[in-house]
């Protein structure tokens, strides 16, 4: 991984930050993205001279094109893409608003299409590329109140399997890492009762940690 250039979306905190730190520790130069200047500055601060934080709206094709042009000019072609950025808009389907559905699809699925497509030409030309998409176990199991999120994450799996078959012969691999319940700052708001309910379904008896996901991504 030494000397490779990696792009990690949604890298200001949680799983994205853990992935960015893990890849940089193994010698990659990491560009991490956030939706705000403050987030991008935080990424630059924790990566130091091993990377840089930049602002990206993953739902905006023009924002993606501008970012990739900047990266190419400043650092070179991207070798490793980690599509980690994601949001939730939980609601029962009977109550779900159209924007809650479309926001999830744009952020969690369509962004994977746009970013992956934008990387392919250079990856295939040099016959090397790694695309790792962060899915979720609920893409397979389903989860009440998350029809939008589960559909998007299931879509990421189907997309990745199909793309992998298209580009494998050119030295580009495409994989999905599908976390279960991971302890991040977002889970701190859960009550002890809620956490106990979750843990009762986890054979290991503990929540996953962001570093667990980061190590799986680094392996791939």
Automatic annotation (TrEMBL):
Catalytic residue positions: 149
One GO molecular-function entry: 3-oxoacyl-[acyl-carrier-protein] reductase (NADPH) activity
Biological-process GO terms, alphabetical: fatty acid elongation
EC number annotated for this UniProt entry: 1.1.1.100
Enzyme class, first EC level, given as a word: oxidoreductase
Domain Ketoreductase: 4-185
SUPFAM superfamilies: NAD(P)-binding Rossmann-fold domains
SMART domains, alphabetized: PKS_KR
InterPro entries hit by this protein: 3oxo_ACP_reduc, KR_dom, NAD(P)-bd_dom_sf, Sc_DH/Rdtase_CS, SDR, SDR_fam
Binding site for NADP(+): 10-13, 35, 57-58, 84, 149-153, 182
Cited function: Catalyzes the NADPH-dependent reduction of beta-ketoacyl-ACP substrates to beta-hydroxyacyl-ACP products, the first reductive step in the elongation cycle of fatty acid biosynthesis.
Record-stated family: Belongs to the short-chain dehydrogenases/reductases (SDR) family.
Subunit record text: Homotetramer.
Protein name, as recorded: 3-oxoacyl-[acyl-carrier-protein] reductase
Organism annotation: Haemophilus influenzae
